[in-house]
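Input.
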Amino acid sequence: MDFNLNEEHQQIRSMVREFAEKKIKPVARKLDEAEMFSYELTEQMGELGLLGIYLPEEYGGAGMDYLAYIIAIEEIARVDGSQAATLAAHNSLGIGPIYNYGTEDQKQKYLPKLCTGKGLWSFGLTEPDAGSDSRASKTIAKKEDDDWVINGSKIFITNGSVDINLGTTVQAVTSVVDGKKEFTTIIVEKGTPGFTQQAMHGKMMWRASDTSHLFFDDCRVSQNNTLGEPGQGSKIMLHTLDSGRLSIAAMGLGCAQGAYEMALKYAQERKQFGSTIGKFQAISFKLADMAMKIELARTFLYKACWLKDTHQPFTKEAAMAKLYCSEIAKEVADEAVQIHGGYGLMKEFNVERFYRDQRLLQIGEGTSEIQRIVIAKQIGL
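Output.
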């Protein structure tokens, strides 16, 4: 087994790290405090080829593998969870379903625009009463002539309301057979009559990313906007979430790495009782455990990406990676604040932001509890 990254992966890590350090880091705190989405950073990520990084070049992508994408997410999250969220949601939830299930006409129509950084796409799944229980969805789409007429709402949708949003893929109930709901995914472009997008504010975390409430009031779109086959919405959603979980895992890994590096630096500089605090066993053991957990998380996440890139089943591994990486992000960020002491509670220290940003990772794209259910089913329980 070869655990060395190839030259392309090393280059993508170096390039994205330099971008994150030089462009994102200087403005991350300001954007967080102002709860401000950065169109400039999003466009720059597009110019670097990070939006659509795993798409073939014929659709405007960079033609890299999924591991390259995950490394890019990891490096952005090492500096700022908000920008990583924008990138991850657009690639995994926005672009992914169109590329994997769209017709050739749909791919050619949407994907090239979505690789530039000047257009974002969202995935409308979660509803006010349907989170972990996605089958509790109440959004419906009925056929009228050659159209779908959609009614309902979605909530907590990333990239759903910014000016450069071009549309969303919405999952809706389209039939009930023997008491069982069937779901279909439907493309709804921004500006469609009856489709309203509303930004959500007052978040604890990812304050510089866009989170939205979407409303559909007799929203009419052509049946040509069906993504995949009618009734295959659940299949599309589950496949999308498998891949998306790898990106959330990468966000957890990057968050943990960034918090650990801040704690290590602080422990090497902060003096108490005549010595730097890193010399004390209580602190050095914390940092040793943090380093160990991060290495284990990275190794397993990259294995899960290898399975995906080599077209092997990876549902179980994606759930494990998402669960473990999000949990160690929580543990490492918490210990990083503890090492900083009172300073870790002040906004002038970035570790405070990391402590807040990690909290969504155990909730988004399937809670930690749901990941354990997925893993249990995968091991035959």
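The chain has a mean pLDDT of 96.
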